[in-house]
Amino acid sequence: MLERLLPGFRGLFYKETIRFMKVPIQTLGGPVLASMLFIFVFSHVLGARNVAFADIGYFTFLVPGLAAMTMLQNAFANSSSSMIQSKITGNIVMLLLPPISPLSFFLAYLSAALLRGVIVALLLLAGGALFEVPSLPHPLWALAFLIIGGVATGAMGIITGVYAERFDQIALFQMVVIMPLTFLSGVFYSIHSLPPLWQTITRLNPFTYFIDGFRYGFVGTSDNPILLSLLVTTAMALVLSAIAWKMIASGWKIRS
Predict the structure, then answer these.
(1) Helix axes 226-250, 139-163, angle to 10 degrees
(2) What is the C-alpha to C-alpha distance for residues 215 and 252, in angstroms, rounded to an integer?
(3) By three-state DSSP, how is residue 69 classified?
(4) Closest by Cα among 52, 230, 256 to 162
(5) Up-side HSE of residue 252: CA atoms within 13 Å toward CB?
(6) Burial letters for 112-146: b for 16+ Cβ neighbours within 10 Å, e otherwise?
(7) pLDDT per residue over 86-115, tens digit each?
(8) How far apart are CA 237 and CA 7, in angstroms?
(9) Which letter does DSSP use for residue 204 in this model?
(10) What local confidence, expressed as pLDDT, does residue 17 receive?
(11) Rounded distance, CA 62 to CA 67, Å?
């Protein structure tokens, strides 16, 4: 049934999954280890300060935010690197020859990016749970923002991978867009601890709503109204997905 609705999806999704699972130390272990170092350093330095919500320890505040940030970064990295690698090596031609529909092409890349992001986030949460068992008062909200966030950045990675012509262009976009927006999205601090001007600037960052919404599932408190976060993140995911699918369907910079 799946093959009839989405011809080629299963095989391409399997190929994309195997691509990052063959090097788990690089694609999964590395991001988890880097985030665990953030946890140890920041929880030690800022743990005694009042930087989080009332009655919520800094460790409990920090771990979900880092998990969401790492998920966003890795979902983007997976789809963008896979797309640019296929274009540069020329093996994307082999994907265009079989009867794979543009929707199957898009969903396979997007699903693999989402899967990598979710795995990394779960590994990080499991590592954090070794030191402090997290509460999870709203698991469905956490799951919703985990999926929506992975879809948004996975689609953003596809767009960047299609547009880029060299690996350094991907690296530049990660360095000047993805990294600053994820780091300055309230991962390490509550927005309410900032001066009014910086609160306004932070709320203009769309990644803030992914981080805040995912953390809400774990601590039951958020900097922004949860429905607003859901609206902003869902709109972003839908718009980016539509653009990514349209770019693939048109064949722009893929077939030529």
Answers:
(1) 30
(2) 38
(3) helix
(4) 256
(5) 13
(6) bbbbbbbbbbebbbebbeeeeebeeebeebbebbb
(7) 888 888 877 777 778 889 999 999 999 999
(8) 24
(9) T
(10) 96
(11) 9
